[in-house]
Specification:
Layout: E1 2-6, E2 15-19, E3 30-39, H1 41-48, E4 61-62, E5 66-74, E6 86-92, E7 98-106, H2 113-116, H3 120-133, E8 140-144, H4 149-160, E9 164-169, H5 174-179, E10 183-186, H6 191-198, E11 203-206, H7 213-220, E12 226-228, E13 240-241, H8 248-260, E14 268-273, H9 277-286, E15 292-296
Parallel strand pairs: 8-9, 8-11, 9-10, 11-12, 12-13, 14-15
Antiparallel strand pairs: 1-2, 1-4, 3-5, 3-7, 3-15, 5-6, 6-7
Main location: cytoplasm
Protein name: NADP-dependent oxidoreductase
InterPro entries: ADH-like_N, ER, GroES-like_sf, NAD(P)-bd_dom_sf, Quin_OxRdtase/zeta-crystal_CS, Zinc-ADH_QOR/CCCR
Length: about 300
């Protein structure tokens, strides 16, 4: 089968579409014929080698965690799913024609494969960091980097929980952030003062690692009320870095519920083919995304 792999750490150009052996599910897993794979910042951070000290991998390695597709093999001990079912979920090496998933749920009605591939890690991350930052109904949450996938999910989930939201984003995404119910302003010089003009900030999330942690700390007055998923310098300021972890099965169940109730929708900003994986990573790293980027298989 065809799959995207890299044989050395580096920029997007190290990604190659090659022929590899098909994977097969182990106990408690399923295999899908991939229809779409989500492109996450985690994917290109792994490709760059940012996590090699804490989570070394053997090269050459595949890429991707999130995918949607059609079940075509089922591992032992799995029930409640059948060959031919359409699903979305998280697994490994999902930039491929076939991938093994360890967590999944059926495709919600009204969601296509491209849209579905963008939800798993995004919703899990959004739910986890909302829990960690401890923001309560009636309080106000500031989201730095609000227009991307995780930001889109955080704003909608927070509002569903009775939390007021603010978001910083690029000039082209101001209307989009406002459409999700947030008070919006741009990042860049003077952003702290612009946020203060919008009102009080009780808690804050940094989603893009753009050097905003000191400003978020200034706005909240408490390092325990700031969480980052992107700035590895956070511990030096007493701020928690929360890049990985969480219960994917629970996150998928909550995502399906939110989608069914019309409370969550994350648009696909751009789709690419497997041969365009390098371009997808380059665009993801450049930022300014509105929603999600996905690879179509």
């Amino acid at each position: 089968m065809k799959a995207v792999r890299f044989a050395e750490y580096g920029g997007p150009d190290v990604l190659e579409l090659v022929d590899v052996a098909e994977p097969h599910p182990g106990p408690g897993q399923i295999r899908i014929a991939v229809r779409a794979a989500g492109v996450n910042p985690h994917d290109w951070r792994v490709r760059e080698g940012q996590f090699q000290r804490i989570n070394p991998i053997q090269l050459p390695a595949g890429v991707g965690q999130d995918a949607s597709g059609v079940v075509d093999e089922i591992g032992s001990g799995v029930s409640g799913i059948a060959v031919g079912d359409s699903v979305l979920g998280r697994g490994s090496n999902t930039y491929a024609e076939f991938a093994v998933l360890s967590s999944w749920t059926r495709l919600p009605e009204g969601l296509n494969f491209a849209e579905a591939a963008g939800y798993p890690s995004v919703v899990e991350t959004a739910l986890r960091i909302l829990r960690l930052v401890g923001v309560q109904p009636g309080q106000t949450l500031l989201v730095s980097g609000a227009a991307g996938g995780v930001g889109s999910a955080v704003l909608q989930i927070a509002r569903d929980r009775g939390i007021a939201v603010m978001g910083t984003a690029g000039p082209a995404n101001q209307d989009y952030v406002r459409s999700l119910g947030a008070r919006a302003t741009t990042y860049g010089p003077g952003w702290v003062e612009r946020v203060r003009a919008l009102g009080r900030v009780d808690a804050a999330l940094d989603l893009n690692g753009a050097g905003v942690l000191r400003g978020l700390l200034d706005l909240t007055g408490d390092p325990d009320k700031v969480i980052t998923i992107a700035d590895l310098e956070a511990p030096m300021l007493g701020i928690r870095f929360a890049g990985v972890g969480g219960n994917m099965s629970e996150a998928l169940a909550e995502a399906v519920d939110l989608i069914a109730r019309g409370k969550l929708r994350i648009p696909v900003a751009q789709s690419y083919s497997l041969t365009e994986a390098a371009a997808a990573h380059a665009d993801s790293q450049a930022g300014h995304t509105r929603g999600r980027r996905v690879l179509l298989v």
